[in-house]
Amino acid sequence: MNTTTSYFMSRHVADTDMAALKDRITGALAKEGFGVLTEIDVRATMKKKLEKDVEPHLILGACNPHFAFEVLGIDPHISTMLPCNVTLRQLPDGSHEVAAIDPVAAMGAMGNPAIAQVAARVREALQRVIDSM
Fold first, then answer.
1. Which of 11, 62, 101, 108 measures 20 to 30 Å from 80, CA to CA?
2. Which residues have CB under 8 Å from 125's CB, separation 6+?
3. Mean pLDDT of all residues in the chain?
4. Backbone φ/ψ region at 30: left (φ over 0), alpha (ψ -120 to 50), beta
5. Rounded to two decimals, what is the model's pTM?
6. How far, in Å, CA of 125 to CA of 14, rounded?
């Protein structure tokens, strides 16, 4: 099941575990020219900082250097919006959700048509990643 909201797109995945899903996402991102620059383990962070237990949840900071270079050439301050976050989280029923930011929504506040054009292409690439799960 795919979901698109005003600020993210997602898909539920029931046929795999978190490690295998992370590998699938990383591979799908690579096919679209993205690398993962950062990884935040939300579960481990909440446990360490707050002693709270949450379901497994990862945030992958994905960057496509071609898109990044293009948009930084339009407005260098757009670096405050990079990289694109892709998340994996385990749901209470044991299935998983893969979600990605909608770059069109995130960069829409810029009000720059040139940035909007790049954001639309990034959205298409991230949607293909989500759809491939």
1. 11
2. 32, 33, 34, 64, 67
3. 94
4. alpha
5. 0.92
6. 23
**Alpha-carbon span 13 to 95, nearest angstrom:** 6
Task: Count how many residues are written for the chain.
Answer: 133
Cα 10 from Cα 133, distance rounded (Å): 10
Any idea which of 3-12, 56-65, 80-89 has the lowest mean pLDDT?
Answer: 3-12
What's the CA angle centered on 38, arms 109 and 12, to 5 degrees?
75
Closest CA to 82 of 103, 105, 57, 108: 103
Q: Exposed (0-12), middle (13-18) or buried (19+): which is 12, by Cβ within 10 Å?
A: middle
Q: How far is CA 68 from CA 19, 20, 64, 91, in A?
A: 27, 28, 6, 32
Q: Provide the 8-state DSSP code for 92.
A: T
